[in-house]
Design goal:
The chain is mainly alpha-helical and 308 residues long. The chain has 14 helices and 2 strands, in the order ααααααααααββαααα. It is globular, with a radius of gyration of 20 Å. The structure holds 3-hydroxybutanoyl-coenzyme A (3HC). 3-hydroxybutanoyl-coenzyme A binds next to helix 2, helix 4, helix 6 and helix 9.
Length: 308
Amino acid sequence: MLTQFEERINAGEVIEPKDRMPERYRKQLIRMMSQHAHSEIVGMLPEGNWITRAPSLRRKMTLLAKVQDEAGHGLYIYSSTETLGVSRAELVDQLLYGGAKYSSIFNYPTLTWADMGVIGWFVDGAAIVNQTMLAKCSYGPYARAMIRICKEENFHKKQGYEIIATLSAGTPEQKAMAQDAVNRWWWPALMMFGPPDTESPNSAELMKWKIKLKSNDELRQRFVDLTVPQAQAVNLTLPDPDLKFNEETQHWEFGKINWDEFWQVIKGNGPMNAERLKARRDAHEKGAWVRQAAAEYARKHNPELINS
Ligand code: 3HC
């Protein structure tokens, strides 16, 4: 027999923080949402690395705004996770010292300016495919956070694609730089969607509760189908000799993903895992005085906020 909660989910109702929910539902949401928030925050690092080296003032302003948006996304998602009864301080602690996961994609280095283009195009593009579905998920605070985030990710994707279109139409060296970035980021971008459905331990439960509405493989396929024509439009080649359009299914078939690499990266052995975590820990520890000062100020001027 279905529980009252399952009936609500099946009827497409939105679950709000004060509603009754199974403990597993709450735990799964905290796991997934906190990993997502961490990804937004760690995701500032690869692009932050290029702000001082952007090739023009216009590019610098746009990149600065994009990286700042990612910080905002992290904060909305930490706030929506707090509605499940866990504090942001606790979640940040899990990221910095507790081995919490964040997206595999941010453990790769950003070697050239073209990487800024490809990150906007592929990484924000993949995030949009994933997050437009999450904007319809069963947990209200997460779904609502996703609506605003997706709007901003759309700008990010456009700025990245425009960088790549410009480089691709530029000098032979610029075009080669764009192609090299595409070659390095394509496969890690496909890994962002998570392991194949047959090896995804959380999917069945998440789909039962309408937290996930589409599976990892379905979303990966959608991303490939959207991205292949975009690559053709800017005369760049995706580094997969097995890519071919299947007339029957109307989908692009693609080659084998190196899942060993994926599992290594999420275990902490990717090219940049150690550096990313060190940068976050340093920032947190050096920023302790700012948190103390803000708390002290609030205690003095808004004591009711501290006590509430
Ligand atoms: N990177 C790191 N870990 C990953 C991963 C990835 N790309 N894909 C899967 N994993 C982890 C899972 O977290 C899980 O680990 P856990 O059980 O220890 O927590 C394990 O691998 C098995 O994977 P599952 O498929 O069972 O996990 P999920 O069902 O949770 O699906 C997911 C994974 C598709 C990433 C899903 O959690 C999800 O949609 N999350 C929300 C979106 C998100 O986190 N996006 C981050 C992308 S970056 C971003 O948005 C920033 C933007 O600014 C560009």
